[in-house]
Amino acid sequence: MNRRALITGITGQDGSYLAELLLAKGYEVHGLVRRVALEDPGHRLTRIQSILDRVHLHAGSLESFPSVHQVFRTVEPDECYHLAAQSFVSYSFDDEFSTLNTNINGTHHVLAVLKDVVPKCRFYFAGSSEMFGKVEEMPQTERTRFHPRSAYGISKVAGFELARNYREAYGIHASSGILFNHESPRRGYEFVTRKITSGIARILAGKGHELRLGNLEARRDWGHAADYVDAMWRMLQQDEPDDYVVATGETHSVQEFVELAFGYAKLDYRKYVTIDPQLYRPAEVDVLVGNPDKARARLGWSSQTTLKSLAGEMLKADCDALGVVVAETSGAAPR
Ligand code: NAP
Ligand code: GDD
Description:
The protein is α/β, with parallel strands linked by helices. 41% of the residues lie in helices and 15% in strands. It has 12 helices and 13 strands. The protein has helices at residues 13-24, 35-39, 41-44, 65-75, 89-94, 96-117, 151-170, 192-204, 225-236, 254-264, 293-299, 307-321, and strands at 4-8, 28-33, 55-59, 79-82, 122-128, 174-179, 182-183, 211-213, 219-220, 223-224, 243-246, 252-253, 273-275. The strands form 4 sheets. The chain has a 7-stranded parallel sheet, with helices on both faces. It has a two-stranded parallel ribbon with strand order 7-10. The longest helix is centred in the first third of the chain and has 22 residues, at 96-117. The chain starts with a strand and ends in a 14-residue tail after the last helix. The model has no long low-confidence stretch (mean pLDDT 97). Bound molecules: NADP nicotinamide-adenine-dinucleotide phosphate (NAP) and guanosine-5'-diphosphate-alpha-D-mannose.
């Protein structure tokens, strides 16, 4: 019989790639989605439009224990990938309360239900490099101490500890990925890479003339989401649950990404980019760079995408959507 997977956050960037990966592997794929999404599929299910006839969607909200319980009882999954979260760091400064509530209680609800209904189900928690925050060493490994800098980061540390505690206290096969930033043409428009590539496409299409950005000096370790969901799956195929850093091992500044993307468009970014102090965060994570050695050694996983081809792929997809041609993006076809 096909293995059954339940993905929370299936409508998001990672959820959509993971669903495709699991379908290709022969899984029966189920997703927990908010009722509003089911009621507005044209807008809110766009990332999974092409697989809608092959996945099973169930209405539920992370904040509601009964709704999570109901979905688990219906699906009885073999594997659960818990990706749903308020994932925008910047917004977590505007609304700490809802971020902490959704991300911490949501993870707690999922784990508590899993333990009650399907204790043999393998569990993946979407941890984040934001947990390292004000980094205490370079590069960051599974042993680096956490020092989160936002409610979002704090919520991910709490979720990570909950997953570890369920593993140690109740024997749940719970693994956490400490994933560094990963992007794609499906990235939300609010995140900096997509804001940049979609902004350039608008400029080329004559629909915009300015791109307002915040801190260009921040450095991130950027990979491709399609590569990273494969690491999630590999974690749940291990005999023993564990925690893994998933990263490229390279760090680049936002400024470098700006120059790369504007370079493809043959535009001088200085004519278009305006620094807006309002977009700076109250506490910034200045630099992130992960050491993926453990994932490489134990999972046989490594990042397959360079930043250059990632930026090219994203820009091309945004330009295609507006009917604009960019000469050469060196990116692979949009995944
Ligand atoms: P995303 O595109 O923002 O997707 C978030 C998903 O969570 C969406 O499907 C969203 O549903 C769902 N969601 C949010 N609140 C919910 C609620 N109250 N109840 C049910 N569903 C809810 O995020 P992503 O980039 O795919 O990231 C996936 C996970 O990995 C997140 O937990 C994120 O924090 C974590 N992470 C991401 C990265 C990265 O660089 N992408 C790195 C490290 C960790 P709607 O469509 O209804 O809004
Ligand atoms: N969003 C945004 N918008 N960020 C900007 C802007 C802007 O206009 N200008 C500069 N930045 C800087 C931010 O200050 C930050 O240092 C960096 O660009 C990246 O910001 P985001 O793309 O919003 O991502 P993030 O690093 O805060 O968070 C993402 O990665 C985490 C893993 O490290 C999210 O996907 C999180 O969910 C994820 O956990």
